[in-house]
Predict the structure.
Amino acid sequence: MENSNYNPEKLVYNYRSFEHGKAKINAIRAAVKQADDNNDIPYMIFFRKELCSESSWYSDGLEVITVFPELLALIDKYPDAGLTCFWNNQPDNIKPVLWCYELLLSACVEFYQVSMEECIKFLNDFLHRWTAYGHDAKEPYRMMVEIRLPQSHWL
């Protein structure tokens, strides 16, 4: 349901005024809902990326595990979605989202419910996307080492 009072920039300035923690996470969640209600694709992506970052900072790995697939689905569905004014000179919205893989992988190793096979699947997807974006495999392999993935599981 579109809201004529929807102002995503104001939402960003609002939640950025909070200290890190639950209140800020709740404000970002509210921003996600408003962007969704207004079908504002660039901000649907941006707010989810912000929610992953803040949730990771606040050690809420479950939120990252829950939100990241939504974020990735939006990038896949709308690869040419416009940028918001808050992307800080990024050429597109894909690279900042790819960096969220690190947050996802850190969260995955905290939960025994996430199997090693699922971690490997995430890593392989990250490796594929990262190299398709034009980067070498150094970063994905660094992440593999950080989560202590045995070399036999590396691509």
Observations:
- The first helix runs from residue 8 to 16.
- The chain has a mean pLDDT of 83.
